[in-house]
Amino acid sequence: MTGPGTNQYLLGDLQVDAAPLDEENARRLDAEGVTPRALLLTHVHPDHAGGAPALRERSGLPLAVHNSRASYVVGGAPLAPERPLADGDELAWQGGRIVVVHTPGHESGHCCVWEPERRWLFTGDTILSTGTTVIAPPDGDMRAYMESLDRLRALEPAVVFPAHGPPVHDAVALIEQYLAHRRMREAQILDAVAAGIDEIPALVERCYAELHPALRWVAALTVRAHLDKLAAEGRVAADGERWQVA
């Protein structure tokens, strides 16, 4: 589910995200020779927040996360951040400042990190460079996700630094690809429902025909997210587990 693994970024002495702190991860962080002064989590999924309690215990690292996730439990204890974040908050780093951009969709408290001077955008799981992002209801919200992508495109970033995969320097084009892909998938689903394919497993079979069977449960979550968005827009309606064009 994490592709090549979870990227953790050291932006000067500010760390963005914390994968579980196993021996290899601890060795890599120590090898950088930097003692972070703060840890900012893009969101609370385990591959991004799993190392936060251990880093806090090891070095007293103060934690920043969206204020909606302040009581979220990781490692048996609430995150209880020293810095609850809100959209538009600014934090200093050695090279200037960063701006918090609340980008719900993949996760309701998800935040991206915007470095406006260099036009660097640290996107967490909102935008990847390997594959696409899973939107898993009920916390995942396709309508909010599309709005978040539009907002990030308006920033006109120069480089996207994703949580999975390498950096992408043609950042605006990548965001446009993401938007186009979601619109394509939505159109496929709407056409399939109009053709009488009215249950999610059959929609997955139709719209994700080449997907490995082991990943179809993930595709089913995203199909549901698209249907929820279409229903909120009055374009489809549900009758139990069956869907029809409204």
Report on this structure.
This protein is an alpha/beta fold and 246 residues long. It folds into 2 domains: 1-169, 4-Layer Sandwich (Metallo-beta-lactamase, Chain A); 178-246, Arc Repressor Mutant, subunit A, CATH 1.10.10.10. Helix content is 34%, strand content 22%. It contains 7 helices and 14 strands. The strands form 4 sheets. It has a 5-stranded mixed β-sheet, with no helix packed on it. Helix 4 packs antiparallel against helix 5, helix 5 crosses helix 7 (216-232) and helix 6 crosses helix 7.
Q: What attributes does this structure have?
A:
246 residues, alpha/beta, Metallo-beta-lactamase, Chain A, Arc Repressor Mutant, subunit A, five-stranded mixed beta sheet, 7 helices, 14 strands, elongated
In CATH's first tier, which class of the largest domain applies? Alpha Beta
Number of helices: 7
Please summarize the sheet with the most strands.
5 strands, mixed
Helicity level, as a percent range? Answer: 25-40%
